Each structure stands twice: as C-alpha cells, then as structure tokens.
Amino acid sequence: MRLQKGQKLLFIGDSITDCERARPIGEGLFGALGKGYVSMVDAFLTAVYPELGIRVVNVGTSGNNVVNLRDRWQEDVLDQKPDWLSVMIGTNDVWRQFDTPFIKDWHVYPEEYETTLRALVERTKPLVGNIVLMTPFFLESNEQDAMRIRMDEYGAIVKKIAQEYGALFVDTQVAYNVVLKDLYSATLAWDRVHPTPAGHVVLARAFLNAIGFDWNKA
Amino acid sequence: MRLQKGQKLLFIGDSITDCERARPIGEGLFGALGKGYVSMVDAFLTAVYPELGIRVVNVGTSGNNVVNLRDRWQEDVLDQKPDWLSVMIGTNDVWRQFDTPFIKDWHVYPEEYETTLRALVERTKPLVGNIVLMTPFFLESNEQDAMRIRMDEYGAIVKKIAQEYGALFVDTQVAYNVVLKDLYSATLAWDRVHPTPAGHVVLARAFLNAIGFDWNKA
Amino acid sequence: MRLQKGQKLLFIGDSITDCERARPIGEGLFGALGKGYVSMVDAFLTAVYPELGIRVVNVGTSGNNVVNLRDRWQEDVLDQKPDWLSVMIGTNDVWRQFDTPFIKDWHVYPEEYETTLRALVERTKPLVGNIVLMTPFFLESNEQDAMRIRMDEYGAIVKKIAQEYGALFVDTQVAYNVVLKDLYSATLAWDRVHPTPAGHVVLARAFLNAIGFDWNKA
Amino acid sequence: MRLQKGQKLLFIGDSITDCERARPIGEGLFGALGKGYVSMVDAFLTAVYPELGIRVVNVGTSGNNVVNLRDRWQEDVLDQKPDWLSVMIGTNDVWRQFDTPFIKDWHVYPEEYETTLRALVERTKPLVGNIVLMTPFFLESNEQDAMRIRMDEYGAIVKKIAQEYGALFVDTQVAYNVVLKDLYSATLAWDRVHPTPAGHVVLARAFLNAIGFDWNKA
Amino acid sequence: MRLQKGQKLLFIGDSITDCERARPIGEGLFGALGKGYVSMVDAFLTAVYPELGIRVVNVGTSGNNVVNLRDRWQEDVLDQKPDWLSVMIGTNDVWRQFDTPFIKDWHVYPEEYETTLRALVERTKPLVGNIVLMTPFFLESNEQDAMRIRMDEYGAIVKKIAQEYGALFVDTQVAYNVVLKDLYSATLAWDRVHPTPAGHVVLARAFLNAIGFDWNKA
Amino acid sequence: MRLQKGQKLLFIGDSITDCERARPIGEGLFGALGKGYVSMVDAFLTAVYPELGIRVVNVGTSGNNVVNLRDRWQEDVLDQKPDWLSVMIGTNDVWRQFDTPFIKDWHVYPEEYETTLRALVERTKPLVGNIVLMTPFFLESNEQDAMRIRMDEYGAIVKKIAQEYGALFVDTQVAYNVVLKDLYSATLAWDRVHPTPAGHVVLARAFLNAIGFDWNKA
Amino acid sequence: MRLQKGQKLLFIGDSITDCERARPIGEGLFGALGKGYVSMVDAFLTAVYPELGIRVVNVGTSGNNVVNLRDRWQEDVLDQKPDWLSVMIGTNDVWRQFDTPFIKDWHVYPEEYETTLRALVERTKPLVGNIVLMTPFFLESNEQDAMRIRMDEYGAIVKKIAQEYGALFVDTQVAYNVVLKDLYSATLAWDRVHPTPAGHVVLARAFLNAIGFDWNKA
Amino acid sequence: MRLQKGQKLLFIGDSITDCERARPIGEGLFGALGKGYVSMVDAFLTAVYPELGIRVVNVGTSGNNVVNLRDRWQEDVLDQKPDWLSVMIGTNDVWRQFDTPFIKDWHVYPEEYETTLRALVERTKPLVGNIVLMTPFFLESNEQDAMRIRMDEYGAIVKKIAQEYGALFVDTQVAYNVVLKDLYSATLAWDRVHPTPAGHVVLARAFLNAIGFDWNKA
After folding, report:
1. Catalytic-role residue among D83, D141, D145, D194
2. CATH code of F172's domain
C-alpha cells in the first residue's frame, strides 16, 4: 500500500470525477465527495485502512477539459497542498469534436491537450510527491469507432506523459475493455461516457490496484 | 463464488437497505438500487463477474421493523421468486425503544422479533434456495451502552436462527467493530445508525466475503 | 399528397414519439403534441396545407414496447377512430436487452415482437384506412454493433409486416444512415436513441416524404 | 444554397427569436437554440446539409426592441464574428404603442426605428458578409387593423433598408398572409404575436427559401 | 338597488369568471372569489352596502363551455340555492372554432349553445328568483372579424333567451365597445379574451349598473 | 375630474400600497401595479376615462416607514417626474411600537414622523404639481384602543401638513369608519392592517372621490 | 403532579393546537407535536419529569370548530384511548361570525356550541379518566369589543360544562389578561388569535399549572 | 431576577443557538429568534415578565466554532451593544475531531479554544455589563466515551474562564446529566448534539435559573 498515514489525496477531472461533489472544495461528510469513483475510493480507504487516516479531496468539475483544469490549477490543486494527485481528463476535449463538430472553439485537439497536460505535470511535480495519471475512456467496444480511435489517442498521450515523469499510470480504457467483453456498453453507461455505479467500480478498482490496495486486508 | 450464472439476488430490510431505491421494486438503472450497500454489491458483481449476469433487486423500506416485513413478505419477497434472499432487519425494532420510549406500540421486543423472523425464514426456506441473514448493528463501541446491549441481543437471535436453518450468516456488528477500533463512530454514521459510504463498504464487504466473492479476480 | 381534407392522423410509439405530449390524449395547442417529430409533422401540415385541416393526435408513451402498445390499443388507437395511423415501436424492446441484460422480463425478443405487431395491424386494418409503419432505429453507424444488428432485425420485421398488409413503410434507419455518413452519431443523439431537433427532422422528413408532402407547395 | 461549408449563422431578435435559448449565447445541444424558428432552421440545415457543417447561434432576447439590440450589438453580434447575420426586430417597438399606450417611454416610433436599424446595418456591413433582414409581423388578417397598419409601416422600413444595403429580405408578413387566408390567426398565435410551432414553420420556411435551401435534396 | 339584505349571489362561467377562485366552491376570504370581476363586485357590495350583507359565491371554471356548465349545474348551481344567479358563458364554445378548427369535438355551435343555455334557464327559473344573463364578448373592435361576428351571434342568443325568460340582461360587448373607441384591444386583453384589471372593471361596472348599484351612495 | 390628459400619477407607501407590485418600478401590464387600491384606481381610470390616457405608477414598498421613503425619495419619486404624487405612510411607524415594543430602533415616533414627512412635501412641492396625502389607518372601531389612538395622531399630522402645503387630503380612517359601523374589522382585514379587496375598494373610492372621479360617466 | 407514570395525554382543538403537527396522528420525534403549546407541554414534561414517561399526542386540526371535532371524535379521541384528554375549541365557531358574517353556514352559535361540547364530554367521561377543558380566547384587551364579548360567552359555556362534569378547567382568557395589562395584543398575536411563542407559553403555563406541574422540581 | 427593565440580551453560538433564526440579525416576530432555547427564553421572559420589556437577540450561526465567533465578534456582538451576552460554543470545535478526524484544519484543539474564548471575554468585559458563559455539551451518558471526555475538557475551560472574569456560568452538561439518568440520549437528540424541544427546555431552564427567573411569578 503506497499511501502513508495522514496523507492527502486529491482528485481532479471532469463530470466523471465531479459527480455532484460539494463546492467549492469537495471533502467531508454528507456526499461532499460526490457519487462516483472518488467517493468509492475514499470509502474503501476509510473502511479498510482506518488506521491510515487518508484525507480525500475531490475537485472535479463537470464539463471541464484540460484547458479548464489549467485555469484553476493554482487554486484547486497547488493551494490544496496534496501529497497525492490524481488526474483524469480528456473526455470533453474529445467529445465536443463529435457532438458539436461545428463549434470548433469548444474542441481541444491532441497537440493542445498534450502540451497543456504536460505543462501541468511539469509544474506540479516539484510540489506534489505522488502523481497518478488516469486515461480518459470511451465505453465503446468497437476499436474502429471514430470517437474511440480519437479517445485512444488521448489515452496514449497520457501514458507517454506518465512515463516521462514517472507518474503512476492507470489505463481506464483497458480496465473497461475487460468488462466490455461480457457486457454491452449500455450496461455501464447510457451515453458511453457517464458510468453507472458498476462503471465507477471499474475506475475505483483500477485506481486502488495501482496504489497497492490490499483487498483482502483483515 | 457461490452465486451462479443468471441468479436473482433480493435484499430486504429497513432504511439502511432502502437508501432511496426505486418504487415499487428497486431494480434496473438510474439509481433504482438506492445509494447504499445493495448498490455497491450489485456494482461489484457486475464489474467483476459480468459473465455471471446476476440480477440484484432491492426491496428495503425505510422505517420498517420485522413486523412490517412480515406484512409485505408475500408480495415483496415470495412473489419475486429470488434465488438468493438477504435479510437485515431489527434497527427500528430496537431504536424506538430508545428514542420514543413512551410510545410502546412502536417497539418490537426480542420475543416478538424472534418469533416473527423465524416464521419468515421457515416459510421461505422451501421456496428460496439460499438465504443470507445479516444482523442489525449499532455503531457504538461501548459494549455497555444500553442500546448496544439490546442490539446485540437481536444480533444473537439472528445468529441462532441462521444456525437453525443453515442460512449464511453475516455479523455486521463484528465487521464494524474492527473499524471502530480506529475510528470514532461519528465517522461512520452521525446518528450511529445510518452509515456513510465508508460504513456501507463495511456492509458490502461483509456480504461479498460471505458469498465467496474473489476480490482479486482479473 | 395522400392525406385528404379533414382527416385525422394518429401517431403511437415510445419516448421518441411521446416527447412530453399532453395527457391523456396529445392534441390541441400549447405543446400538446410534444417536442418531437409529431409536432413537426403537424406544424408542416398546418403551415403548408392549411386548407386541408388535418387533425394530428399523439399517443406515444415513453418507455413503451410493443406489448405495452397492445395493452392500450383499444383505448388509445381504435377508440380514437383515426383515418391514418402511424406506428413506430421497438426501441425499448431491443434496448432493455442491452442496458439491463440480466432482467429478462423486460426484454421483448423478435418472435414476440413480430407476433404482437402483426396482430395489432391485423386487428386495425379493417378499421383504419391508412396505416404507416416506421422502423425503430439505432443511431450507430457501425453495422456490426451488436445492438445495431439486433435493431436491424426488428426493422426487417416491420418491413415484412408492412408488405404483408400493404401499409406505407418508412425506413427510419435508412434515413439516418444518409446523415451518419457526414456526422458522428453523438450530433444526432447523445445516447444514440433520443434524437436532437435535427434528428427529429430526419424522422419528420421521412414521414412527410412517404405521404407525398410537397415541400415546394406555394 | 447560399451558405457555404463551415460558415457561422447568427440570429438576433426579440422573444420570437429567443424562445428560451441558452444564456449568454445560444448554441450547442440540449435546447440551446430555443424552441422556435431558429432551432428549426438549424435542425434542417444539420439534417439536410450535414456536410456543410453550418454553425447556428441564437442571441434573440425576449422583450427587446431595436434600441435594445443597439445596446448589445458589439458584444452579441460583432464580437461573435458571424458569416451570416439575420435580424428580425420591431414587434415590441410597435406593440407597446398598443398595449401600454400611456407609457410613451416604452414606444419606439418609426423614425427612431428606421434610424437605429439603418445605423446597425451600416456598422455591420463591412464586417459581416451576408445580412438577412426579416420584417416584423402581426398575425391579423384585417389590413385596416390599427396595429397591423403600424406593423406594416415597420415592415416597409425593413424592406427599404434591405434594398439600400443589398441585404437578403424576408417578408414574414407576406408569408403569413398566405396561411391566414385559410386559418384564423388564433390557430397560429393566441396573442397574434407569439407563433405556435406551425407559425414558426412559416418563419423557418421563409428564411430557408431565401437562402436557397433545397427541400428535395437527397 | 335590487339586491336585498342577506341574499346570496352566485356567478358561474368560464376562465373570465374563475380567475383562480377557491375550490370546490369559491367563497370566503383570502382570494376565494378569484382575481376578476366577481371579486370586484363582491368588494364593492361589501364596501358600499355593508348593511346588506350580500353573500357572493364564484363557481366559474376555466375552459368551460355551456355543455360543461350543464354537466355540473345541479351541484354547482341548484344545490347552492342562490337568490341571484349570474351566467356568462360562450367564450370557449366559440374560441375553439377558431384556435383549433380541426378538432370539431371541441366546438359548440350556435344551435347546441342556444338549446343548452335555454334548458338551463328553463330548469332554474322556478328555483332561483333572479337570473342575470351576461353575453360573452370578444375584445376586437373590427365588427367584420370572423370571430367577432361569431361571438356576436352568441351574444344575440343570450339576449333572446334573457327576453324570453325575463332575466336581467348585461351586454358586455356593448360595454367594451365604448372603451374600444379610445383604446386598442391589447390594452384590455393581450389575447382579446382574458381581461386586465381595467377590463374586469368594465364587466363589474356593467353588472353593478344592471342591478341598480348606487355609485354615489355615502 | 382633476387629472388631465396624459398625466402621470405615482403612488408611494408601504405594503398596503405595494401589494406585490413589479420591481424596480411598478407600471405596465401583468400585475405590475400590484393587487391593491393602486391597481383598482388605475383600472377605473382606464376603463372609465380611456380618453385621458393616465399613466399610473406604483412604488410602494412593504415594511416601509416614512424614514425609508425619505431614503429612496430621489430615485423613486423625483426621478420619475410624476404630475401627481400620492403618499400614504405611517402604518409601520406606529405598528412597530405595538408589535415589537422592546425594539425601539424600529419605531418612528410622532415628532420624527412629522418632521420627515414635512421635509419630503417641502422638497417635492416645487417639482410635482399635485400632491395627495392619504392618512394611515387602523381597522379598529374602538377609538380608545391604544394603537388606534396613536394612529389617529399620525393621521392628524398628515392633515396638518396637507393644509400647510395645500395638498389634496384623503382621510382613509374616516372612510373606513363608515363601513366599520356595519362590519366588524375582521371582515376588512384579518390583522386590522392589510385590507381585503373590499378594504381596498374603500381606499380606491376615497382617492377617486378626492380627485373628482365621475362614477356615472357614460 | 396529577399525571402518573406511563399515562397518555391527548390534545384536541383547532389551529392553535395543531401548529403543523404530524398526520394522521401527531406523536413522536421530528416536530410531530407541532410548534405550539402542545409541544411545549410535552417538552417540559419530558425534561422535568423524565421518570414519568408521559406520552403526549396532538390531534388538533386547523380550522376546526366544535362540530368538526364531533365528526372525528371516535377515531381521533376515543380510539386513541388516552388517560388524559385536553380540549380547547371555539375560536373558529366565533371568528367566522366576525370575518365572514354573511356566510352563516360557517357559524356555530352558542346554543349549538354548548350542546355539542356537552355531548362530547358526556360521551367521553366514562372512557377517559381525566378531562381538561380549556376556554377559547381572543387577544383583545377591550372587554367591550364585540368579538371579545362573544368569545367570553363561549368561555363561560366551557366553564359551566367543566363544573357540571368535574373536569379540570383552564381559563386561557384570564391567563392572557394578566399579560395584556403590560403588552398590546399585537405582541402576542398579529391577528389576535394565533399566538407567538410567548403567547403559547401563556397557554402551556396555564395548562401545566392546572395539572400541578412543579416548576422548581430538581 | 437579574435582568432589568429595557435591557438587551444577546445570544451567540452554533447551530444549537441558531435554529433557523432570521438573518442578518435574529430579532423580532415571525420566528426571527429560531426554534430553540433562545426563542424559549424570550417567550418566557415576555410571557412572565412583560413589564420588563427585555429585548432578546439571536446571532447564533450553524457550524460555527470559537474561531468563527472571533471573526464576526465586532459586528455581531459589540456593535449590537447588548446589556447581557450569552455565549455557548465548542460543539463543532470538538465534533470535527471525531466525525472528520482526517481533516485537521477543521479541528479547534483545547489550547486554541481556551486562548480564543478568553480573548473574546477579555475584550468584551469592559463593554458589556453581564456575560453568561454556557458550556458545550455532548448527550452521551457514558463518561468514558472519547468525545464526551473531550467535550468535558472544553466545559472545564469555560468554567475556568467564567470564574476568572466573574461571568455567570451555566453547566449545560450537568443539567443534561440529570435527565440522562432516566432517558437514553436518543430521546433528547438523535445525533447526541442537536436537541429535541425537550432538550432545548433543559437549556432554557438552566439559563433562566442562572439569571434568577421566578417560575412561580403570578
């Protein structure tokens, strides 16, 4: 288990991270962590490792792309002084290219995505000891689907940056692909983007596995 | 893993089971299973054992005691024809003795609790192949607390009935006691009864462990 | 133009037809016809053929499958005594097989779909002069997608029944396929099922073309 | 078809244009274009000319008169840098003279209307390649009705300015007059101002015809 | 002043009478009489003739036509045992012919209107001492307007029946015509049907004048 | 009739004047004048003297006392440039002395009331041609009631100032006293302060009589 | 202290008793006893005599008069089997005579009040060991006020019946009169009927004093 | 009785004091003092000592700890110029240590609590004649409970400061302990913190006893 006693773990991302978290900062009781994988991660850490006292914070914001993250990075990430930072971004960067293709101002293409994300990691590395980079994903099993192809490109960028900076890497698309062998995507997300609770379990498991969580701890 | 392909697993109980499930029957997408341990169990079964296709149904109802369960047993349990049935009841039977002590009509004392619960199991055993009995619990670490003492009595009754009928037994109080060594009860439930997500993880883990869930399944 | 002065045209179907129509019968002003293709068809008939005085009625109901239609057929179709009847059903018959695959009670498989739909047409033909059968559709351009394959089966059934009974046939999937050559499906429907206004125009155009609507009428 | 690939088409006007569009700028999915003729125009362009990728924007605002347009022209029109601009204004300029005749501050008389509208066109012409001027209208078939007479004056001013500046001209009153031969005005608008969907079809058709839309395009 | 001490005065009609009155019977304080002419009549009777103690009751119902009145006549009129009855009906009988011309089930044509209204008066005359018949009206000054012509027909029927049975007759159209010489109809009613407070004053004055109200009573 | 063609009549006061008027300025259609005597005055002026075109404005504000009026006098009275100004204030100045007697900051005693009101009239007289001063009132027939005695003091101050400055004077208490001979106060106002519609008729009549309104004008 | 261990005390009355109590029966936590004197009585009994375990039930209903009590007496009083019954009724019986004087159906005059109340006590005495009769009251210090005179008549009837049947008698008017020497009625109730918390303290004190409550009990 | 005629008594604290008081300052009618012990204290002072005219003000704020009080002390306490000040704070200072133990920023430990509270008293003593310090409390009868132990520490600090500065001291924990001998804590507060009305009576009694309130005053 890589997390140590008393550490602070902060998640940032888009609606998949947000899930109706509290404002301005998502932490504390009463649903403050939202209804998605962040809340699940926190619940498992608290229930299974109560002695560690891990503090989980959620600053995901619905609709955000990587440029939006950059614009609030100082306040929502660096000022929070986390020990661990987890980033999952890219869904909206890609989706707008497919659902509102004519409104190009709303698109973030691969080059800008890569440059922006790398700059964020570069800036954060000296300040935050542990960074986890999670890929965006698209719940479509057809690898030739145009949006899936594009999302995979963004996932590859995340992987490349994780390797460059030695960040923990979580390939959410791979994690979902296992399940998609048995289930049609609609079971995990009606719109192929926003997961059901089962879909969030896939994310939480992938994250917890990456940090060395022991599922069978007494 | 004891559940088999295509089986139907039904949960009944009080508000801890209910958690805003859909009416009249809690099943399907869009939060139909509520926000508690039932939804977590379903999400883990779907995400980790997608090939089994387990159908989970939630018919918990807030405020119910064992007498209320009896009154809706035919419609909400037997008519649903589950392969697995999980029952967790007793919180309100006990709680009313402590929060509205002067309104004795609202109390279900141990004798009536035991008689009623046993009759339900007796009636159900020939029809449902697998029964899981979960104890009620009280999130209070002081074993001399009056309400904790009383709740433990009810838990012992559940255990006795489980043994009599060969039902799977889940001791939720024991599961919580492990966590309460490190955490004050308020972290798991403000009122010592309704769990936070972390508190529901304790329940979901205890249930999944009882049915032989493999946490490390690929 | 096949519709004649003073005729009554009734649409039945699921949420794609419903679109928040008035209850119990959708007709009249103030959004009574809903916000989808039915309202568009009515608006074009009124604006372009005001001299015909066509009365449009919407009895689509969200969530319905062909079995639900059968259960309300007498009251919602036959009792209304329409001159024209348009039916578009099948989305939910198929979708439940893919989004809640373990709840088999909610599925309507091809055989039951065909039998039920044919019985409805058989029963109605002597009473309603003109029947239009519209296929269900799935806004997925990948013809090998499992749900698209299944939906195409249902479309083929609709076509077969239309031919058997000499009903007007509208192939909505074909109409969408034209547009999907240029647009990713998310532009027409986030969940690949519920169309945007542009998606409803595709349906309205296909219907109006089928009945001989003259777009260039002065 | 006069619109070319990738062009941006912006509509400005009053409540007839607004129709509950999104704020601050009406564009994108989920009803952002409102429920009126603008949304219809967009839906037809997307469904019939998907290959053109026309971007439609709605900045109509309920209650506006031409003076209100002037006050937000820089931000809502020029800063948006459209390729096509469509303006339909004048209803409130006239209506206030008839429904609150004693509150003269709220009236915009013909001279001010003409001066202001001309100044807007003059200012915009060098910046926006294509301008469409649509007349205001009053759904009253009696040409001697006082408010109809007055509205016709404003329509004539629009026509004059369109001719002066070579703008495309859409005579909405003429388009409605055709329909009013067969239908009493209440069928198209309860208050003779805010159209039903059929009334919006009249506007959308008139606009689309003006820009060379091919209704029979395959 | 024709009303005498302690008498009960009941108004029935459509939305112009209703004006959000209390249900099931509109009488008493706190807006129970609605916001229209009935409330004004009551307020003037109470304020100017407090010594008479007139009890005013409102059973107008929005959307009603004369057939709807007939269906609730026993309960809402006769069972109330009024000393005075005022009826104003016909707006919806006519309006539906003009706003939803294709839905003929919703129209009440002159013959049915006359027959039904006469039967109601015939049935009531032996039981209620004083009947006031008010014409329906249309706030359109153009006497050649199709809906105004039709409404005038209904007004003439009311007048004829009033004369036949010796009922007090209030010609609301005539009362409005005086005001319409100076004001455009939109000042009195946006949709030419539902009056502003000023429009309700015209009705209240006409009614009060008909019953001999002394405006200058000290 | 003292009001002349095209004049603007502005009312200021407390909740009795306000009655849910529109903000920031109460004028125009759709209930903008509130539900009290101001709306009635406007409705009678419009219905009986349509040829005069009187513009009525309501700037009453619930809870106000004379000090509150002074604080918004420039903006809400003088900047509006009325031809006629009607002021009715004092209820809250007095009431707070009786319902919250211990919170003396909320009381406005006679001396401050007189000084402040006189200063407002002094300041306004050169700018507004016609001023109407209405007394506050208390709907209590017992002249020895402590609050009635106090309210009468304030009424006397209003009368004195009206005489000093030659303003039109409306004694609302006297107008109510006539009605209170026949009716218990609860019929006109449950709390003896906020009038029913009948109570507002008393105010409107007193005002209209003061300005020479001809009730029998054809 | 007259109440004994384990007894049930039921209150019935009108809005002054009701105060938003729970439905159908007001008992238990979370405001079930309403916000008035009943809740205060319960709170003092629980806080000062916790060892007695008195069960308090509230079945007051807003708007009720003595006839309404009679109509629900079996279900709401006798079926509840209280040991103590407290009745306070009469406000609405009287008030309707003063606020809606013309609607005589709504009045309950002294004779009917007395007959009905006596019949209820007669019927209940054999079944309920202890009956408390509280007078209705009117928060008006002027003993010559018409409604106060009438309310005093009803209070005298209550006193007479209490004496006839040996019921405990609580003269709420007398209790209020003490306070009204120092405070104007508006401080205790804006409408002279519905008490502020201070007004409810007067009622609770009078009740508790009548049953021998010891305020200085340790 | 220590309070004297015309004095102002201000309460500050957390949610137990707040209880939905009015904003920004809680005073006046209509629930402005909230629903807890402050409102009860005011109601008893008004009902039993109406001649004193005590003005009660509530500035409690839910969620506050002693540091939050300090931050609004000038505006909410000193600027209000009370004659009496009552402070009850500490619940949240302690509770956050037990319900969100990992978020240490939210905890106020004993040293900071003592320093801050003493500084507030020191600063206030010269300006406010009478200070009452009430301990925080925890409704748990087990004196070895971890949170009860911690709360008792804070209570001891309050006692020490009260003695140092000669403030009136109210030991709320002691007052509750008496009741907890007979009742389980859940009867007084579901979460052991927010009292029921009975729990607020305990607080109000303790406060009133401390200021010499005579419960048997006529």
Report:
1. D194
2. 3.40.50.1110
Instruction: Kindly indicate the confidence band of residue G218, based on its pLDDT and cuts at 50, 70 and 90.
Output: confident
State the pairing for strand pair A8-13/F8-13. Answer: unpaired
What pLDDT, on the 0 to 100 scale, is given for residue B22?
Answer: 98
Chain C, window 180-199: residues with a beta carbon less than 8 angstroms from a chain A beta carbon: 183-184, 186-187, 190-191
Rounded mean pLDDT, D111-121: 98
Instruction: Count up the domains in chain G and report the number.
Output: 1
How far apart CA H125 and CA H119 sit, in angstroms, is 10
Give yes or no: E141 in active site: no
| Mean pLDDT, rounded, for A39-65 | 98
Residue F217 falls within a domain, yes or no?
A: no
Check C95 against A186: CB less than 8 A apart. Answer: yes
User: What ipTM does this complex have?
Assistant: 0.96
pLDDT, mean of residues F38-43: 98
**Which of D6, D29, D54 is the closest to A100 by Cβ?**
D29
Query: What's the mean pLDDT in A21-27?
Result: 97
User: How confident is the model at residue B57, as a pLDDT?
Assistant: 98
State the first-to-last Cα distance of chain F, in angstroms, to the nearest integer.
14
Closest CA to B7 of B114, B83, B100: B83
Q: Does F30 touch chain H (CB under 8 A)?
A: no
Residue of chain G nearest E53, judged by CA positions: G102
Nearest by CB: H27 against F99, F101, F103: F103
pTM (2 decimals)?
Answer: 0.96
* Annotation marks residue A141 as catalytic: no
The shortest CB-CB distance from A186 to any of C98, C144, C184 is to: C98
Contacts of G100 in chain F (CB under 8 A): 187
Residue of A14, A15, A76, A152 marked catalytic: A15
Contacts of E187 in chain D (CB under 8 A): 98-101
Say if residue E218's pLDDT is above 90. no
pLDDT tens column, E1-38:
999 999 999 999 999 999 999 999 999 999 999 999 99
pLDDT(D15) > 90: yes
Q: Name the CA dihedral angle for B149, B150, B155, B161, rounded to a multiple of 10 degrees.
A: 130
H54 near F CB under 8 A = yes
Phi first, then psi, for residue B78 (nearest 5°) are: -65, -40
List CB contacts (< 8 A) between C55 and chain E: 102-103
Q: Which residue in chain G has the smallest CA separation from F140?
A: G145
Nearest Cα neighbor of F178 from E47, E42, E43, E41 is E47
As a whole number of angstroms, the longest Cα–Cα distance in chain A is 54
User: What does the pLDDT read at residue A218?
Assistant: 83
pLDDT at B218 over 90: no
CB atoms within 10 A of CB H75: 12
The answer to whether residue B103 neighbours chain G at the CB level (below 8 Å) is yes
Weakly modelled stretches of chain H, pLDDT under 50: none
Indicate the SS3 state at residue E72: coil
Q: In the prediction, which pLDDT does F218 show?
A: 83
Q: Which helix (H) or strand (E) holds B73?
A: helix B73-76
Model pLDDT for residues E28-71, shown as the tens digit of each residue: 999 999 999 999 999 999 999 999 999 999 999 999 999 999 99
Active site residue G15: yes
| Domain presence at residue F181 | yes
User: Residue C25 to residues C5, C33, F42, F70, G195: CA-CA distances in angstroms?
Assistant: 22, 9, 42, 58, 50
Nearest residue in B to C103, CA atom: B55
The verdict on residue C196 lying in a domain is: yes
Q: Which residues span the domain enclosing F45?
A: 8-211
Residue E105 maps to a domain: yes
Mean pLDDT score, B15-20: 98
Torsion of CA F203, F204, F209, F212, to 10 degrees: 150
Average pLDDT over residues G3-12: 98
Instruction: Locate all alpha helices (DSSP H) within H53-90, ordered by sequence.
Output: 66-71, 73-76
